[in-house]
Specification:
The protein is of the alpha+beta class. It is built from 5 helices and 7 strands, in the order H-E-E-H-H-H-H-E-E-E-E-E.
């Protein structure tokens, strides 16, 4: 296999089953602007009312320019961007996450996700496989604010 074959493809919009993708394939999601409404609603749903999310002065005293989004809100938005992307993966279940929070997501930041297939394995069921996806969440300046991997149980086409 030559180097260009090992790099994979940039996936175009469409539905992809496990047997349609390969290691090295990648795609980008659209973006979303993180709003005060996202942060306040996430605080209410999660019960995470930590001051740096809800109080500008507390966030500034902690060294941030203002309130910051919850780390898990960033992860949730990243998963939502993946799920609603025109590149549709035939996912059956998310099996796990290995995730790092690299920089704060501020209210007003616009984030998008770069996704690459970094691993694949079949399961004992012939109609399913597990894809390992690497995700990088970037803000409007290109700073990686979060990154990690997820394992996605996927259906087979054949």
């Amino acid at each position: 296999m030559n180097a260009s074959e090992n790099e994979g493809r940039v996936l175009v919009p469409g539905m992809y089953h496990f047997d349609d993708i390969k290691v090295g394939d990648s795609f980008n999601t659209s973006g979303v602007t993180v709003t005060e409404t996202h942060v306040v609603n996430f605080a209410g749903v999660s019960g995470d009312l930590y001051d740096i999310h809800l109080d500008d002065i507390a966030a500034q005293e902690a060294g941030f320019p203002g309130r910051i989004a919850h780390g898990l809100l960033g992860l949730s938005l990243a998963d939502g961007l993946k799920t609603r992307c025109p590149v549709r993966l035939q996912g059956l279940a998310t099996l796990g996450w290995n995730w790092s929070f690299r920089a704060p997501i501020l209210i007003g930041d616009r984030i998008h996700v770069q996704i690459s297939v970094v691993g694949m394995r079949t399961t004992k069921r012939a109609d399913r496989g597990i894809a390992t996806l690497a995700l990088s969440v970037l803000n409007q300046t290109g700073t990686t604010v979060q990154e990690g991997e997820t394992q996605l149980l996927m259906g087979m086409r054949s």
